[in-house]
């Protein structure tokens, strides 16, 4: 593999991980807000 392809392959994983983390955080915040609105605990 050439350097550009190998570099892109290695650098895509942190970007994908960050995207998954953002999706999970947004879902948790949505659940926290819904629980607070309904006056109940999250867990």
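^ structure tokens above, recovered residues below v
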């Amino acid at each position: 593999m050439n350097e550009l392809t190998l570099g892109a392959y290695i650098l895509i994983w942190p970007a994908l991980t960050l995207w998954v983390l953002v999706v999970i955080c947004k879902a948790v915040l949505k659940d926290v807000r819904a629980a607070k609105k309904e006056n109940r605990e999250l867990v």
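The radius of gyration is 18 Å.
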